[in-house]
Each structure stands twice: as structure tokens, then as C-alpha cells.
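To: structure subgroup
Subject: Chain for Friday's discussion

All,

I'm putting the inputs and outputs inline so they're searchable in the archive.
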Amino acid sequence: MKGPNPNDKEPMKGFPQVGYLKNYISSENIIVGDYTYYDDPEGPERFEKNVLYHFPFIGDKLIIGKFCAIAKDVTFIMNGANHKVSGFSTYPFQIFGNGWEKVLPKEGELPFKGDTVIGHDVWIGYDATLMPGVKIGSGAIVASKSVVTRDVPPYSIAGGNPANIIKYRFDEGTIKELLEIAWWNWSANKITENLEEIVGHDLASLRRVSDK
């Protein structure tokens, strides 16, 4: 197979702060695609510590696609962080038991935003925070220190607190075609042989090699 091995924990020899993330995941509810990396000078094994309030009994998943670049201290807030907000108090009495469990929230009373899903070829900058259930489209960029509270469309750039769409990287037609080409689903050999087209800016050339 041409190209790096996605099963290597440390794809950059002598530079252990960068790791192919899927090889560091222990939770069944975190799913990461090939070649997605996490860059942290304290070690890529820290990633799961930044996935907060991710309780197995809730069942929500963090799904991250292939070829994503995730910087240090990117934090994912999962659905377990939510409190009941329909009553007078938001305090979670029930989790402490000893008679307080009698006010367990009824089905539907706790906000549930669903899975958090990151597409392919997404770049998430340093110290960004993603709230429960957000969807980040393929090819998107999230600026450092952003707080993402709503979905980010494919090939857009989002930033701020709360994050807003700053601009789109390409025109609508180009984005549609890039999503159809979906080069991240090619074989490692095909990607290696056509890197110039993937990192270039000639859509006709990328389309041509895609059809081979």
C-alpha cells in the first residue's frame, strides 16, 4: 500500500505529539476515520479527556470522518452536560440519590441533540469547543477558540463565540462537485498517486483523475 499506514499511532517519527486518533480511542461511542490526527504536545492520548459528559447510558456518539486535523484542546461537550430546564430549578438532584432520585427527569425532559458528527477533511483549530449534536460538514474549517453551537456547512469557515459562518471556501457548484468526488473515500494508492490534484485548485484535473 502506498502512503502512511493509518494504523500507526505515531505517523511522524520523532514527533510524538501528532497521532492518528483512531488508534488512541477506547470508547465504543467515539468513532474516528483513517488518517484523522490529533496534535497535542502533551500527547494525543489526551484526546478522550476533552470529550466531556459522554456517559455510555445516554448513548450519543462522537463521529469523526477521515483526514481531519484536530488541534490541541479542542473540546467536545456531549449530551450528558444537559440539565432539565422546564422546572424552577436546573439542579440535577436525582444524580445524588438518597431520596432525591424521586425527581428523575421523565422521557423528553432532558434536552438531547443527538450525535455530534464531523465530516471528512475538516480542520478544527486550537481550543475550539463544539456543543452537543452539532454537525460539521466535510471540508469545513473551525477557527481557534470558536464555540460551535449550530451546524457548520461543508467547505465553510466558521469562527467566533458563538461561531458564525465567515465565508465559504469555494462557490456552490464547486462544493457540490467536491462532495460528489469525495476523494477521501479513494484507496490509499489512488490518493497517493493523485496528491497534486487533491491539494491543488484545478477542479477539472481532480474530476479527471476521479473518473479513472
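Points worth raising on Friday:
The first helix runs from residue 172 to 181.
Residues 18-169 form a domain with the UDP N-Acetylglucosamine Acyltransferase; domain 1 fold (CATH 2.160.10.10).

D.
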